Amino acid sequence: MEHIGEILILQPNLILAEGKKDALPAIGSILKTKSSSLQHYLVVVEQIVDSRIPGRFPQAYGLPEEKVEEEHPHFAFLLSWMFQVFPVLQKRGNIFSIPDTLPKIHSLVYEVDDRELLSLYKTSNLVNILFSLNEASFPKRNEIALKLLKKIISAVPEKEKSDAIYEIFSSLTRYFRNDYYSLRKIMRELEEL
Amino acid sequence: MKKFEGSDENFVGYLKSGSMTEGFVVRLLKNTHIEDKLRIGDFIVIEGRVYRFFGIVDDLRILSFTDDVFFDPPESELQKLALEGSFLYSEAVLAPYIMYSKAFDTISQIKTIPEHFSKARLASGEDIEAIFKKGNKPFFVGMPLTKEIEVHIDLEKLCLRNNGIFGITGSGKTVLAKIIFSGIIKHDVSSLLIFDMHNEYGMSARDERGVTFKALKYLFRDRIKVFDVNRGNKDADSPIIIPYKFIEPEDLELLSSELSFSEKSLETAYIIERKKRDNWLKYLLNLQGETEEKVTQEADLLGVNASALLALVRHTSKLSKLDFLVDTEEENTIEEMLKYLKAHRSVIVQFTGKYQSNRLAYFLVSNVITRRIHSRYENMPEEELKENRVVIVIEEAHKFLSTSFKEKNIFGTIAREMRKFNVTLFIIDQRPSDIDTEVLSQVGTRFTLQLLDERDIDAVFQGVGGGNRLKKILRSLQPREVLVVGFSVPMPIALRVREYGEGFFDEMQVNKSGTDDIKDIYG
Questions:
Q1: pTM of the model
Q2: Any CB–CB contact under 8 A between A191 and chain B?
Q3: Strand B43-47 vs strand B23-28: parallel, antiparallel, or unpaired?
Q4: CB B118 within 8 A of CB B27
Q5: Residue B386: count of CB within 10 angstroms of its CB
Q6: Domain that holds residue A56
Q7: ipTM over 0.85
Q8: Pick from A68, A71, A107, A60: nearest CA to A87
Q9: CB contact (8 A) between residue B85 and residue A170
Q10: Residue-number span of the structural domain to which B278 is assigned
Q11: Fewest beta carbons within 10 Å, which of B84, B117, B130, B488?
């Protein structure tokens, strides 16, 4: 399996990885590091494309995207394709837990496929941990969680879908005990799938 | 004793809060569908750490964590299902009654309460058996409202005190009475003296649909004697003859509305009794053919008002039409009845033919016979009393036991005092609110079927601990369902009365020889 990015910045509340041009992982995707002793699972919370040269400000070309790439191919080399991740799980041996360490710098990260995503959902506390994050320090929590849940539901075989949605709805009622309207919003979007 | 734990399917929730006075609140599990699983009156067991607590569902409620739910209600069944148990939830309120010590296998009244999160479950058959099958003479009378479990009542205990069956017409009073009386007779717990106003306890009886059912005499031919005021009843073992001398003015007082009696007439009757002694009624009835002039002369001789005497003669004319009232010195009827009662047989007094549903005959005969029986028992040696327990059954009991009459007839005395003479009352009535409260307070066990009038419901539970809770259960009862409260049951219980049909008849006749053995029935 090919990696999808590499962790380059490790700061309090900010972990950034560099990805590939036009191939950044979707927000809400679950990524993982590969290490035999300690594996980290991270959720993609943001995509960022920024200049590699400090202080450089890009200029507008006024052309369609394809034309820009054709006529000014150098611009791609001046940009970095980054994404922000948030650690949600770690796995030591076969034990999942809330992360108490950060992944190593330059760790390569890989996308978790549908099968593993389902397995994570069933065997770990992935959704619980995500919802236990404080919304004040993680304002996009609900949006990220909704995207993750959509991925999980899409990964569920068709005949098990309504049971899975029911299970997810039931657990959501616990996290949104004091925010019924957010719960309803998420429920509505998930049921549309 | 068997160790019993509720199966998972009986598990309904957890104890959320509770107090001795307010009851226990059980938060129901989200998969506990109230409509299917619970109703008022159901038995619930709370598994405490040391004790098992038994209570009755007293209230059920559905609640929401926030009203927001109703401003933006769930749009699909899936969403609604998911909200159940969190935003939407339900609770059962239990009235706790008794607790069972797991270590010592003993039952006692509630003295403590279980801890938070104690498991609540529907009572199992073993639970109910453990509670209701502890007595000497247990008898199956019905099943809990939502369970097919036999509930037994201790007949021995039942007959130690006065009892009552209350319910509106068609609620199943007579069927329940026949079931209980069958048990009493079959297990030889007591002799019964039944004043059978509507002829429902003899050989057979018809229900409201016109279907004929076997009655007590059919089931226990050798152990019941039927007496009838109607000499033409071929099913009766003996006719009833009441000598004039047995009638006392107090009997007329009880019959005042049937005889259209005034207070003045009653005073006149008492004066005549003082002067003519045992012959007072004979004297009075003999005046009926006399002229007004003759009656006036007699009034002068007696020193009573002539018009009062004329009125009394007129009012008592109905008595002369009662052909079981006879000018005789013989007391065969009472002697015969006493003989049967002392021989552990039961006696049914019937009112067939022209006396069917005749209130005048019913009130007069039951009052007179009971007074005589009472007097014999009152003077019976103690050793003999121990062997001769009698339960006197009266219908339309409010007539005898109303506040205005209870002091003046024998039933009030029996209700208050006769327990010590081994004579108790079993009253069957549809208007308990008309029965004197002091008498009602002497009713040990109350079998209350459907009642609709609030005054009657209030009357039945007056002075009963937790009466308000029990009223809720009572209001939810259907015909043939009964709420049993009192001395002979360890805790109140709502029951579906068992079937009174061929199965029951077969069970009652298992040992016709009379060598009843509880094991034959209960295994």
A1: 0.76
A2: yes
A3: unpaired
A4: no
A5: 10
A6: 1-112
A7: no
A8: A107
A9: yes
A10: 260-315
A11: B117
